[in-house]
Each structure stands twice: as structure tokens, then as C-alpha cells.
Amino acid sequence: MADYCCDQMQEDLERRCAVHEDRSDCPDAFIGRASGGYGLLIHDGGSSMIAISFCPWCGTRLPERD
Length: 66
Ligand SMILES: [Zn+2]
Ligand SMILES: [Zn+2]
Fold this sequence. Notes:
A three-stranded antiparallel sheet has the order 1-2-3. A hairpin with a 7-residue loop joins strand 2 and strand 3 (49-52). By secondary structure, the chain is α+β, with helices and mostly antiparallel strands. The chain has one helix and three strands, in the order αβββ. The protein has a domain at 7-52. The protein has one helix spanning 7-14, and strands at 31-34, 37-41, 49-52. The site of one zinc ion has 5 residues, from loops.
């Protein structure tokens, strides 16, 4: 079972876009998973992310992942 902090987080992470195969290409995708945790996807044509420690929706501290 995944440990989502809120519905918005779950919705975003589980959203599958029919147009964009890669979430980093989809403007509707906000959150990405990185090796060290979670990040905000930067849609600059690449796969950049800004690491975040708190959920942008509910403010819960995000679990560290390895
Ligand atoms: Zn949340
Ligand atoms: Zn899309």
C-alpha cells in the first residue's frame, strides 16, 4: 500500500495521461518521485524537479525514500 498524505497527492501520482507517456512531459503532473523523496516537476522540456519536503496541498511532511 502506498502512503499518500492526501487525496490530491494520490490523484496526482496515480494519474496516467493518455497523451504524455512520461509524467515529466505532462503539464498536468505536479509531483514526481525522485530517489531521495518527492519533487515538483519542472516542465522545461527536460526532467528537472525541485525537491520538496512537504506536500504542496496538505502540508504534511513527506516521507524520505531511498
Ligand atoms: Zn498531502
Ligand atoms: Zn498529459
